[in-house]
């Protein structure tokens, strides 16, 4: 008989990937979700194909009340060119135990 408690089951974080072509309204949908959710802190990963992150800035400003953790990966598609950076960033976000993770790949991804 062991005197140590059994390890807790891993906590699963719901994840939504918001996809679509450039201009489809992905960032607007995320801003709307951030403004209207009521279930804890959310994390958002925004992917920009270019070096300047406009969508990330929009998401950060909509989570200004502290209800969202926003991370951004610029300079290439998270599905291929920045896969390692995406894995590291997602791991860092999940360590903060968000109640939900939203991922917005670039609208110009492959």
TrEMBL record:
<dbReference type="InterPro" id="IPR027417">
    <property type="entry name" value="P-loop_NTPase"/>
</dbReference>
<protein>
    <recommendedName>
        <fullName>CobW/HypB/UreG nucleotide-binding domain-containing protein</fullName>
    </recommendedName>
</protein>
<dbReference type="GO" id="GO:0005737">
    <property type="term" value="C:cytoplasm"/>
</dbReference>
<dbReference type="InterPro" id="IPR003495">
    <property type="entry name" value="CobW/HypB/UreG_nucleotide-bd"/>
</dbReference>
<feature type="domain" description="CobW/HypB/UreG nucleotide-binding">
    <location>
        <begin position="15"/>
        <end position="109"/>
    </location>
</feature>
<dbReference type="InterPro" id="IPR051316">
    <property type="entry name" value="Zinc-reg_GTPase_activator"/>
</dbReference>
<dbReference type="Pfam" id="PF02492">
    <property type="entry name" value="cobW"/>
</dbReference>
